């Protein structure tokens, strides 16, 4: 269950966030949404794929964290075992909401910070404070506001990225089939990636468009991440052997 409310320094002056990356908590997930702004970092540790948003029809990028539902192979007793934690994980229990404001008589929706009061990391006794005693934002909240801003921009960039790739017919579906050290087999469906043959066949004009919009780099970061499937299998095998 979630309980999203608008964050304010009066009602929530005593709230803290006790950030703990451990198994058995809110981060037991096998995929995490990622955004082009962090592709350079996430491609070093995670295999990246597209999934299709059934509501919008757009393709969204995700980092694969495990093979089974609720399995995060990057979590252990020592914390999160990767150089970069996806922004969609970092921002919790905060999220972006929208509030209607009137500017010169024109109503518009502006992004505002919300908090999930039912998130297990929300506390009044432990963790980082959200507000300073005089009501200003704490350093942790300022940092998370930057993360939320990056995510908001990331949503917009991801949509243009998806539209461009679809227009160039570069996205293809795939099934990831793996076998583990104990002999068990697993198939992951509903994933999409870049068709490398079609990418190699693009003309100069299409490549220029990709480059000008900043997405040619994103394409190669996604492709560079794919060998991490093998590393993820190794993580799973170590879990099985242990």
How would you characterize this protein structure?
This protein is an alpha+beta fold and 242 residues long. It has 7 helices and 13 strands. The strands form 5 sheets. Strands 1-9-8 form a 3-stranded antiparallel beta sheet. Strand 4 and strand 5 form a beta hairpin. The longest helix is centred in the middle third of the chain and has 29 residues. The protein is flat and about 60 Å long. The mean pLDDT is 94.
Descriptive key words:
three-stranded antiparallel β-sheet; flat; 7 helices; alpha+beta; 31% helix
What is the element layout, followed by pairings?
Blueprint (H helix, E strand, L loop, with lengths): L3 E3 L9 E2 L13 E3 L5 H4 L5 E5 L6 E6 L10 E2 L2 E2 L6 H4 L3 E10 L2 E11 L5 E2 L4 E2 L9 H29 L3 E9 L5 E10 L1 H5 L3 H9 L2 H11 L2 H14 L1
Antiparallel strand pairs: 1-9, 2-10, 2-11, 3-5, 4-5, 6-7, 8-9, 12-13
In short:
The chain is an alpha+beta fold and 242 residues long.
| Beta strand % | 25-35%
Oligomeric description of these chains? single chain
- Percent helix: 25-40%
Separation, N- and C-terminal Cα atoms = 33 Å
Low-confidence stretches: none
Determine the structural class based on helices, strands and strand pairing: alpha+beta
Q: What is the N-to-C order of secondary-structure elements (H for helix, E for strand)?
A: EEEHEEEEHEEEEHEEHHHH
**Helix run count:** 7
Mean pLDDT, rounded to whole units?
94
Largest sheet: 3 strands, antiparallel
Q: What is the β-strand count? A: 13
The strands making up the biggest β-sheet line up spatially as: 1-9-8
Rg to the nearest angstrom? 20 Å
Outline type:
flat
């Amino acid at each position: 269950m979630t309980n999203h409310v608008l964050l304010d320094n009066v009602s929530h002056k005593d709230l803290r966030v006790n950030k703990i990356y451990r198994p058995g908590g809110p981060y037991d997930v096998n995929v995490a949404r990622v955004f082009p702004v962090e592709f350079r970092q996430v491609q070093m540790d995670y295999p990246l794929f597209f999934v299709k948003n059934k509501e919008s029809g757009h393709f969204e990028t995700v980092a694969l964290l495990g093979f089974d539902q609720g399995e995060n192979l990057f979590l252990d007793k020592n914390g999160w075992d990767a150089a970069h934690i996806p922004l969609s994980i970092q921002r919790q229990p905060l999220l972006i909401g929208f509030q209607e404001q009137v500017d010169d008589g024109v109503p518009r929706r502006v992004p505002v910070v919300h908090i999930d009061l039912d998130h297990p990391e929300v506390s009044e006794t432990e963790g980082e404070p959200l507000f300073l005693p005089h009501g200003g934002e704490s350093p942790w909240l300022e940092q998370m506001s930057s993360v939320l801003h990056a995510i908001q921009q990331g949503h917009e960039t991801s949509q243009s990225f998806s539209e461009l790739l679809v227009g160039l017919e570069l996205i293809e579906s795939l099934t990831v089939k793996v076998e583990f050290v104990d002999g068990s087999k697993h198939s992951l469906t509903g994933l999409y990636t870049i068709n490398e043959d079609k990418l190699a066949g693009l003309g100069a004009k299409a490549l220029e468009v990709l480059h000008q919009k900043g997405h040619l780099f994103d394409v190669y970061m996604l492709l560079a991440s794919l060998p991490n499937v093998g590393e993820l299998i190794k993580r799973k095998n170590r879990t099985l052997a242990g």
